[in-house]
Amino acid sequence: MGLVLVTALAIGSQGRSGPPTEDQRVRRITSVIRCPTCSGLSADQSDAPAAMSIRDEVRRRVQEGETDGQIKGYLVGRFGGDILLQPEAEGVGVLVWALPLLGVGGAVAGLALVLRRSRVRPGRQVSDADRALVEKALRS
Amino acid sequence: MSAVLGTAAVTLGLVAAILGMATLALGLRRGNPAMLRAGQRYTWLVLAGAVLATAAMQFALHSHNFSLKYVADNGSRSTPVLYTVTTMWSALEGSILLWALVLAGYLAVMARHFRDRATDPIVAWATIFALAVAAFFFGLMAGPANPFRLVAGAIPLDGPGPNPLLQNHPLVAFHPPMLYLGYVGFTIPFAFGLAALVTGRLGEGWLVETRRWTLFAWGFLTIGIVLGAWWSYEVLGWGGYWAWDPVENASFLPWLTATAYVHSVMVQERRAMLRVWNLSLLVATFSLTILGTFLTRSGVLDSVHAFTESPIGPAILGFFALVVTVSIALVGCRGDTLRSPGSIDAPVSREGAFLANNVAFAAFAFVVLLGTVFPLLAEAINGDQLSVGAPYFNRMTAPIGFTLLFLMAVAPALPWRKAATETLHRRLLWPAWAGTLTVVICVASGLRGLSPLLAFGLGAFAGAAALRQLGLSVRGARRAAQPLWRGLFGRANGGMVVHIGVVVVAVAFAASSAYSHRAQFRLGPGESSTLAGHSVTYLGTTTVEHPNKTTTQARIRVDGGKVYEPSLHQFPFGSQAIGSPSVKTGARADVYLTLVVPPDAAGVAVIGVNVQPLIAWLWTGGTIMGFGTFLAAWPGRRRRPQAPEGEPVVSRDEVAPQPAGVGVGS
Fold it and tell me: Which residue in B628, B622, B634 sits closest to B174, CA to CA?
């Protein structure tokens, strides 16, 4: 079963062959660009005029052969760093990526430690009073 | 008159809450049962205050009493009756009133439910804490968020009506009340948790008492969130249902911690472990509802729901700080007695899976909270302007979601304490095959992409595991000569039904985010275009004058069949036109139409088309989750007295109902 699953996932994650089309690239870029006049929507999702003009601009630059990085750099230069919907991993922005990883790492490590300690610990000592209780319960 | 009645009612609620707290506190101090019983009765006065204030507000809205600032700002003569009713929760002050009403309702139900145990200190303390929360919300209405404030100067003849987005779809009548029933419902278990800390009766008694309250609150919150997503989909017109908007996150955060809680309480009930952790989750859930209110209502975060820059921010933030401080102090004081007598024997066990579940949910909540407040943090640290949006949340939470789906599949098959490999193999074999075959079929039918395939495979795995549990339970009911449907009731079975709902939602989420198509077409009358195999034909537009708005409707034939009418509404007081999408719903995919630009002089309009698969599954899954919660809250097979598995458990005495006047705990 494992083999079947891994093979299927490997085929499935290959994706369509060939370089991405122009549409795909425009959508890929605009989906991480904030629509400047909306709240919380990307330039890919919104139908606001500002989002449409960003889409047109990105398409024009894609046609001119700019890379994704160049286009994003241009947009950051024009609108400011908060135009990106996910912060770059630099400066303060590192924290938003690193803190969850550190937290989860810490939690998993802590959990492993607790589990290990409770497993290493030998069974509880049974006191005479406990035995007496059990005896009594069994007899009644 | 409404203003006088409303102000009097708010004052009544506030005074009753404070007097009730004082009476209960005195009664506890003097050990006076009569005073404790009297203190409980104040909850009815609080309810009376809330109901009267609501009635006054509704009367003012319907009688167009524009001498009230709230009515003048949010009401209008041309608003239809339904949206005049919902105007009460269309802006800040009225939302607080709705909150107070729901809270007063819960308080009264609580007082009635525990009326035979009014003299039990844990009930008295819980009532004090719940009344304190009520006093805070009535205090907000008496002070900074007064819904009955009068207009300054001349009384206007008409008002602008509620926010155009909030008078566009009937769901606005159901989504906020459901959400509030969820938010506010957690006040009761929270109050009991604090009461357990104060009285020192930290056994499992209070947990068992509040189990059903927690479930109901969780169920309402779930339904409220799903309705919110549905509202967003039907109204906002961008074709999505979840934007990771701050206010959505604010409702999702308590849901995450509450979901962790409803799982980890089972460990405490069965094994008497995780006491501090469970209390912390409960405190986190309650305080996150307050923090969410602060974030979304104070205007610190940019959001469609942050109606106004309001003066209540500091008050709510102060209350949040108070809740957290008191809770941490109480847990700190009781730290020594909270140490659990049980311990985990093996990581591969039911309790081990619940621990992993809790780590995953805590991580999920942490990511969502961090992402939501990070723009504020970054600005505070070095003045950087940053945005954190959907791409971040999707990327960070997807692995956690996969982990949770996997746990959902495995955990129900794990026995408590320790699992033998052989048992596990036998129980998980066919669910695992179901997952594998699903992936194979999906790949064979041409679906690509690792994330959606993983989601479908794990979803099928988890769904099959849940179905297997339900099948066993139904078979058990047949053996016991009970009607078969008994096998679906009770916490474990209802929980499995909820799991199936979660799987359906997860599959829908994965499919709709991975395989959506969107495009805008410039079409003249009679012209057609095609997107993802669906044809759209633009037929023309009509303009309709309503009393409260002017609507431009486009007529669009989809797939040569029915005609759909996405529209643009122009409200007299709103500057921007508000779009209303029109959706062709299908079991396989939705075709979502918007009128982006109305026809120009040449008659050419811009039509937005959005084809997303399996959207209907979201609402179906949400319904299944709500139904499952109902089944879980239904009394199942009684297992009382709850036999702890294995190790001895201290202080079980408070599980049984206390006779009046007794019950100072361990």
Answer: B622
Q: Do A9 and B359 touch (CB under 8 A)?
A: no
Q: What tokens appear for B162 in the block?
A: 């509620």
For B326, left (φ over 0), alpha (ψ -120 to 50), or beta?
Answer: alpha
Helix (H, G, I), strand (E, B) or coil at B362: helix
Contacts of B432 in chain A (CB under 8 A): 1
In angstroms, rounded to a whole number, what is the distance separating the alpha carbons of residues B66 and B61? 8
Q: What is the dihedral sign for C-alpha B411, B416, B420, B423?
A: negative
Residue B324 CB: number of other CB atoms within 10 A?
16
Q: Are strands B517-523 and B605-613 parallel, antiparallel or unpaired?
A: antiparallel
The answer, for B384 touching chain A at a CB cutoff of 8 Å, is: yes
Set of chain A residues whose Cβ sits within 8 Å of the Cβ of B443? 8-9, 11-12
Q: In the 8-state DSSP scheme, what is residue A19? A: S
Contact B295, B301 (CB under 8 A): yes
Return the number of other C-beta atoms located less than 10 Å from residue A110's C-beta: 11
Q: Name residues whose C-beta falls within 8 Å of residue B346's C-beta, 6 or more positions apart in sequence.
A: A119, B352, B417, B418, B419
Q: Which two tokens stand for residue B628?
A: 């499952």
**String of DSSP letters for B18-62:** HHHHHHHHHHHHHT-HHHHHHHHHHHHHHHHHHHHHHHHHHHHHH
- Whole-model pTM? 0.89
The Cα–Cα gap between B271 and B163 comes to 51
Amino acid at B624: I
CA-based R_g, chain A, Å: 28
Nearest-neighbour CA in chain A from B148: distance (Å)? 31
CA-CA-CA-CA dihedral for A82, A85, A89, A90, to nearest 10: 0
**First vs last C-alpha separation in chain B:** 53
Task: Please give the structure tokens belonging to residue B103.
Answer: 């809270």
Contact B389 A95 (CB under 8 A): no
Helix and strand counts by DSSP (H, E) for chain B: 18, 10
- Residue B431 is given by DSSP the state H
Structure token digits, residue B203? 């056994």
CB B242, CB B368: distance < 8 Å? no
Q: What is the ipTM of this complex?
A: 0.84
**pLDDT tens, residue by residue, B488-528:** 888 888 999 999 999 999 999 999 988 988 888 999 999 99
Please, which residues have CB within 8 angstroms of residue B414's CB and are 6 or more apart in sequence? Answer: B348, B349, B350, B352, B353, B424
> What pLDDT digit, counting tens, does each position of B75-116 carry?
999 899 999 999 999 888 999 999 999 999 999 999 999 999
Angle at alpha carbon of residue A106, lines to B459 and B267, rounded to 5°:
55
Examine residue B641 and say whether the peptide bond preceding it is cis (omega within 30 degrees of 0). Answer: yes
Tracing tokens 């019950």 back to the chain, one arrives at B663
B354 alpha carbon, distance to own chain's centre = 22
Chain A residues with beta carbon closer than 8 angstroms to that of B244:
40
